Amino acid sequence: MLTSTRNLAHIGTTLLRMLVAVTTLVMLTTSETALAAQTPGVYDLIKDFGADPTGATDSTAAVQSFFNTVGSGQVGLIPQGTYSITSTINVYLKSGFRVNGLAPATSGQTIFRWDGPSGGVVFALNQVQMSYFKDFSITSGAGAIGVCMDTDNIPPLVQISTDNRYDDISCNGSTIAGFRFSHQSTQNNELHVLTDVSVQCSGGRGLSIENCESKFNLVRNGSFSNCDEGIGVEGAGSFHAWNPRFTNNTIDLHVGSPCDTIALYHAVSVGSGQLVLTDGATGAPWPILVENGDFDVSSIPAGINGIQDLTPGPLVLKNNNFHSSNVTAASNFVVLESTFSPGGGLSSMGNIYPAGSPFQVNGQLVSVGDIFNGGGAQAPAPIVTGTILTVRP
Fold first, then answer.
1. Per-residue model confidence as pLDDT tens digits over 198-240
2. What is the helix (H) or strand (E) element at residue 331, kind and residue range?
3. pLDDT of 304-342, one tens digit each?
4. How far is residue 131 CA from its own chain's centroid?
5. What CATH number belongs to 39-392?
6. Predicted pLDDT at 157
7. What average pLDDT does range 102-117 have in this prediction?
8. Any idea where the domains of the chain sit in the sequence?
9. 101 - beta bridge partners?
10. Could you count the other beta carbons within 10 Å of the beta carbon of residue 14?
11. 244: preceding bond cis by omega (within 30 degrees)
């Protein structure tokens, strides 16, 4: 009898614990949507503005009202779903707000679908500062996207968009640019930070930095594929990128007119037609650094220089691995340097090149510790044309 009583007590205790656990789980899994309803300064795109998450009806007005309403120090939540957008969403004169999808962009569960005219801008940010955009995708629908996220392209400007962060945002099908940072004002020191962004182009640029824009753009873990230019700098600008991945682009990096240093760290490139092209005028000989990258040069067409440097600033290649399993592609890989300015020239240090010397130089070259023939054998010092400052193994 005592044993039965103990068993009943044990069963009762177990059931109680299970009940507590289930209750706790229910409490912990209360959606952020429900939380938004009871938290001042937190807005929900569906509950508060009536957006349609099925994509069956136009949600443009609801999304525009959502961005108009979320203010400084406030949060806008975007529940999982697909939202049809038929005209540009203008985000104007904002500071210190956050817009957050409720599922990672990589999951493809929180989507703004562009059903407007082909070539349109989905989100236009003007005079937006210190704000945070996170966890959503922008995709082409009935219309092909021109630009997924644009900044400061509508004058007049009272202030410049700066110190904004774009985290885990994907852009699919853009024909002009995934992210375009530009304005018509004078050069300044504004900052954009992109983390874990992904752009799958249908031409155009993955990231376009132009018109005196941004001296301190930062990119971490960005992915750019099927673009005319993975990252392009034109009109003035600069950036530093860590772990960018380039896939099947016509050109991975095109630098027209930098206004500060450019750097790629730990880049990976596969299937692209040209790795680096630098050209155009610049206000000063700003350096360009490519370091610790892994570049498959197999898809570079014959007659195209894999790396071509025509800017007055120095180009530094350091500890990169350029490789190809295709013997012809490996032997065709060329690094062309054509800079004669005092601050220009090519410095190549500790790189592995897939065949013999890739250098064609009509300017200045420093080669230190480079390895040719894919590292299979230490090649002799390169034979190049032009002015050679230093060449040694």
1. 999 999 999 998 866 556 789 999 999 999 999 998 877 789 9
2. helix 327-332
3. 999 999 877 889 999 999 999 999 999 999 999 886 566
4. 17
5. 2.160.20.10
6. 57
7. 88
8. 1-30, 39-392
9. 78
10. 10
11. no
Which of 185-194, 293-302, 364-373 is least confident? Answer: 185-194
Residue 20 pLDDT class (50, 70, 90 cuts): very low
Interatomic CA distance for residues 98 and 375, integer angstroms: 49
In whole angstroms, what is the distance from residue 259 CA to residue 5 CA?
82
CA 319 to CA 179: how far, in whole Å?
A: 29
Instruction: Count the helices and strands in the chain (H runs, E runs).
Output: 4, 33
pTM to 2 decimal places:
0.84
DSSP 162: B
Nearest to 335 by CA among 376, 349, 228, 223: 349
165-184: buried (b, 16+ CB within 10 Å) or exposed (e) per residue? bbbbbbbbbbbbbbbbbbbe
Residues 305/335, Cβ–Cβ less than 8 Å: yes
Q: Which residue type is seen at 124?
A: A
